[in-house]
Amino acid sequence: MNARNEYRPVYQTSLVDPAEFWAHAATAIDWEIPPDQVIDTTARPAARWFPDARLNTSFNTLDRHVRELPEGAEGTGGRADQPALIYDSAMTGARGVYSYAELLTEVSRFAGAMSRLGVAKGDRVVIYLPMIPEAVIAMLACARIGAVHSVVFGGFAAPELAARIDDAEPVLIITASGGLEPGRRIEYPPIVMEALDLAQTTAPRNVIVKQRTAFPTIPFPEQLPATESMPSSAETVAARWLDWEDAVRDAPLADPVSVAATDPLYILYTSGTTGRPKGVVRDNGGHAVALSWSMRNIYDVGPGQVMWAASDVGWVVGHSYIVYAPLLVGATTLLYEGKPIGTPDAGAFWRVVAEYGVHVLFTAPTAMRAIRRADPNATLAHTYDLSSLRALFCAGERLDPTTYAWAVDTLLAERPDCPVVDHWWQTETGWPICANPLGLQQLPIKPGSASVPVPGYRLRVLDSSGNPVAANVEGNIVIGLPLPPGALSGLWHDDERYKRSYLSAYPGHYLTGDSGYFDDDGYLFVLGRSDDVINMAGHRLSAGSIEAAIAGHEAVAECAVIGLPDELKGQRPIAYVVLKTGVEVDKEQLREELIQRVRTQIGAIATLHDAVVVAGLPKTRSGKILRKTIRQITAGEEYEVPSTIEDSSVLVALEDQILAAQPELFTSRPADGEANGNSGEVVADSDPIAQ
Fold first, then answer.
1. Each residue's pLDDT tens digit, 386-401
2. Cβ(516)–Cβ(526) under 8 Å?
3. Is the entire prediction scored with pTM above 0.85?
4. Could you tell me if 493 and 531 are in contact, meaning their C-beta atoms sit under 8 angstroms apart?
5. How does DSSP classify residue 496?
6. Residue 475: beta bridge partners?
7. Measuring CA to CA, which residue among 144, 148, 137, 197 is closest to residue 171?
8. How many CB atoms lie within 10 A of CB 170?
9. Running DSSP on this structure, what letter comes out for residue 381?
């Protein structure tokens, strides 16, 4: 830990003199033209950071670590032989390590291959790949030549991919022969072909496909063969299909291209929207500065240390903390293809930590809950040497106190000084809004809290009229403008939507879309999405608080609480509960015990209407429970199956189970379980994290 700084004065400096604060942080980056102006607050719709500077993000993640430094000189060089990227596939058994020099060569060669195909600075490239090294290589190669990448989660359906193609208008699509998940294989080329047929924009000139040994070799170069389920068409063959190995063969090594700090690095589409997808734009300069600062000051990770973000490159965590942030500071990053359970068991994460000496693990609370459900006593964890682990970070959903306590107990035997840190951020912000800043000062941890605002974020909690609320009073969480570097610089070609979605509700503030409160010590408790608040007889009840009370029951693995419409009280809270593996209970007794727990821990006003035991809860592929969809099903409303759902059969089973248990709740339902409703605009997306 850096003993020279403490949190409070650093945070105050970041608010009082942000230009000086971020100018100092920018010295950690290698600039072609260093910034003279730190921030332009006159830019619209969002302030621009380092507007007169130039750099290359790929150079900052690779080249500067490989170069030799003169004896006695300080810098990031001399790491040519250090591992940059570790690859571990629980699906295929493949393992691999790329040194910084090897990764630089692979990235430079693929960048040269793209340039040879005519991809140039400012062009968009859609990356539709599974968790294989080529995904990291493709992203860094785009950054190297100034192309703007847009990573789409591998396995997304063709209509979702088509919508992103229409919005980004890429000149190139990079994909693979398929992705692997427990119990199923997903072939990507037919999905890409269908997406190209559905897309309304001009087809990209080329499609590059990485052949995987787990899939049959696909014939090239002109087109894939037609099948009964996927006929060829004139639109599909307009793009030339190329094999990855053929594309890179004899390709020149591309040098890094200079870009403006304000030029876009990538577009990342938030999940859960309807209609035209919402493309979050991240710039090059502010992004590099913020992520580099966060690695040292939040995660306390530096050169040579191993960071594992157990997420997917298709989400913001994968962008920020698998690909860019660890490499910016000369650390080693880990790319894992697998799940927390079932690949092969609930010890998968602990195996990876032990095998590669992981210093910091970043995952989702839902992953911890899945492991806890399958292995309640952490028996498998205790079979591995976890002594390398210095911190466990969670984000994506609130880390409930029960799961927090289980994680602490699990790590206690090996690392009693290993903190378990809940922190909070969003796709839009790109890096943490609230956290325990381990690299500045390890603060006391309060279970259920995301800790304190990160330097650069001026956080407030406001009521519906825009007035600040008192400590311990729930309200809408907003961030004072300007947002710090690294946050979104806008939405792709849609400034009006950016202003409407984030800036119009509370002038001078960014609307996070989450509700919560500050306690007397300035710790933030994020209770969930604003539309997850349950209004019962005029009292605002947090679904998150009720869930925390329920999750403390010894039989409960995880739960979701939603508000059921009620003519008299407005809404009534109802809980859907998943039991731990092997647990058998009397459901009526459990219901009474849970009702009593909620009354005891929250108060008599929080009367739980019912507790229904279900086999599973529907989740996104990044681990978030689909509470809004559950709420729509329970109310008998029409609903859409979100494009990000991990397993749609869980949703169908849940609907059937709710209908069988409580038919009086339903007034209508989509025919045959199909979606035909409209879920409306998503104000802000915090869907980043781990499978």
1. 999 999 999 988 898 8
2. yes
3. no
4. no
5. H
6. 516
7. 148
8. 28
9. G
